[in-house]
Amino acid sequence: MNRGSFMSAARAVAWRNIHNWFSNPALIVPSLLFPMFFFTAFAGGLSRVDSVPGFDYDAGYTTFVYGFVLLQASTFGGIFTGFSVARDFESGFARRLMLGATNRGGIVAGYWLAALVRTAGTITVITGVALVAGLDVLGNGIDLVGLYTLARRMNAFAGLFGTGVAMRLRTMQAGPAIQTPAFLLLFLAPVWVPYDLLTGWVQGAATVNPVTLVLEAGRGFLVGDPTKVLPAFAVAALLVSISILWARGGLKSAERVA
Fold it and tell me: For the chain, give me the number of helices (H) and strands (E)?
């Protein structure tokens, strides 16, 4: 019965959020606009970077940028889940949901499932645009499984982190607290040039940034040269594990005021 109530709550929350997202252009556009802007602006505007000495990425700069944009779209797809949670609390719906759910862990799972579906839609559109723009994938099917598995784990990490923040603050004013940590993790990695071409404090930040491993592994999958795979998956698993504990703490905080 406990498992059944968990799944029932998860399905209900996931369906509601997926339906709202696909039926509301105001929710679809922001999740597409941000990664699309970075891809089109930098894949075109910085395309000559691939002629810089030391840039030895065989698939070209468009594919290099796609590796980051994929990670960004996955992460921010999870972050937008935090916004959905905060909006539901601000409207009062989430409190009614918590009163009606016998297993409230299913609520968190439902938001996470919705994040996966929404992000899959966003990635599909971005990948289509990238293919038209010259995306050259040299990896095989196994490489692509590894690439998108990493992306899914980053989506789970960001979604659970955002959910934890939103359930603690329970207002849309939590937006900066949800978004800023993910933004810093992403943009302090080797975004526009390889790690070896970074200098100064930016290279130092990228060195200690765990997302650097995930990004470099993803780019390795794209070019058919897997690199740092085990450390990258270990980092992703650790981030997800921490975010699960963080989301559970947020749920307990919300339960105290439900």
Answer: 10, 0
